[in-house]
Sequence to fold (252 residues):
Amino acid sequence: MANDTPLQDQVAIVTGASSGIGTAVARALAGAGATVVLAARRLDRLERLAEKIEADGGSAHVQVTDVTRRDEVESLAAGALDGHGRIDILVNNAGVMPLSPLESLRVEDWDRMIDVNFRGVLHGFAAVLPTMLDQGRGHIVNIGSVAGRRPFPGGTVYAATKFAVRALTAGIQLELSAERGIRVTDVQPGIVDTELMDHIPDASVRERFETGWAERRKLQPDDVANAVLFAATAPEHVNINEILVRPTDQTT
Fold:
């Protein structure tokens, strides 16, 4: 008989848990039995999510965290360890996508993407690694993107951050999987129906996405959460390093 709670007794941290993919991942991991530590900047949303998880019979705890702040991410990891005695899974999901053509020179947006999409991943990795090494096991799940395989017009810097995440994931596997028992997965979604699309500041880029996808089916956050759950619940000797998941209707 299948085990309905394969992550029972495990502790998972999910960044960017207040919306979209992060919310769906947190609910999926909690549904599989994990205690989830929910991290994001919006306390009200985190508290509502925790209430939903608890109402469904799961276990969730909230810690407001800005992943661009190393001290806050270290506090997040310390709180998870102090409160639950272990850290089994880190899902580095927090991300931003303020797309624009390079010639617009929106350097502040470039900096923000670097800080959240890559530096934030590094902060999370650094914060949990000592605990995972002490345990002799752990799983880092990075939410990358199909953009980490090829750039697209308006998304060059965004793609660069996701290329960096892909390189980091590969390096973690080389250095820490066989020798130290740290599993790592880069989940690379295509177009997902989340609020990230609403935050694109360049009107021409936003209109191109809206028009191009008006009649096409996007991925839903649960689709990405299912990919994360697939990797996280694989047997300990199985290290699923990459999952590329596109909408059927995505041509690129």
User: Anything to note?
Assistant: Residues 107-135 form the longest helix (29 residues). DSSP finds seven helices and seven strands in the chain. The helical segments are 20-31, 43-55, 70-84, 107-135, 156-180, 203-212, 221-232.
